[in-house]
């Protein structure tokens, strides 16, 4: 498929916003915390809504949680599809995928899955990923490890280093991750049937025998986990977007 054809081909997205984020402490869930005048979630949606190929975005919220005020223009708001999530992340993603299929997404169409708590996704990173959106086994943004990585030992009450891992083969996964809707749906359903909990969608694809491509991400695409991360995200959003 040519680049022009890829730009015209439909794509879809799932934004997972059903988690509680207990490490943030008291207060709203992290995706609803204020960040530069908007909820974190609003920033996390921005880059995806800027990708014209994306027809609809399934916004997966916990059951009973009202749609937050996102201050979107009418056209972008119309592209959002509110979906109730499930017990685990993978259940919530499945709910989003099924809602997109009901909305007209085809099995072969690429679906971007993004964390609601990653508000600093740049347009350039998303464009790098979108170049691989039609790869049959999918792709994900990731960063190569730069720190020395230790494996903690077991069997004692004191934490200790048991092994230093070879970081040259290790990458830190980010989102968005993009996969054909039908292939990802099948991989997640199989994992659920086997009572296996995946930490991200790429892991479910790996279990199904696929090898998603690694696409260089950016350090600014951090996941909000602690209150300190909000301060860092605020700083990143004040910087010029990478070209």
CATH class: Alpha Beta
CATH architecture descriptor text: Alpha-Beta Complex
Strand content range? 15-25%
Q: If you average the pLDDT, what whole number results?
A: 92
Order of helices and strands: HEEEHEHEHEHEEEEHHEH
Secondary structure class reads alpha/beta
Q: What is the rounded Rg?
A: 18 Å
Question: What number of structural domains do the residues give?
Answer: 1
CATH homology group? Spore Coat Polysaccharide Biosynthesis Protein SpsA, Chain A
Describe the biggest sheet? 7 strands, mixed
Euclidean distance between termini CA atoms: 25 Å
Uncertain ranges: none
Number of strands: 11
Number of helices: 8
Net shape: globular
Here the CATH topology equals Spore Coat Polysaccharide Biosynthesis Protein SpsA, Chain A
Walk me through what this model shows:
- The chain has one domain: Alpha-Beta Complex (Spore Coat Polysaccharide Biosynthesis Protein SpsA, Chain A), CATH 3.90.550.
- Helix content is 31%, strand content 24%.
- The protein contains 8 helices and 11 strands.
- The strands form 3 sheets. Strands 5-4-1-6-10-7-11 form a 7-stranded mixed beta sheet, with helices on both faces. Strands 2-3 form a two-stranded antiparallel ribbon.
- Strand 8 (149-152) and strand 9 (161-165) form a beta hairpin.
- The two termini are 25 Å apart.
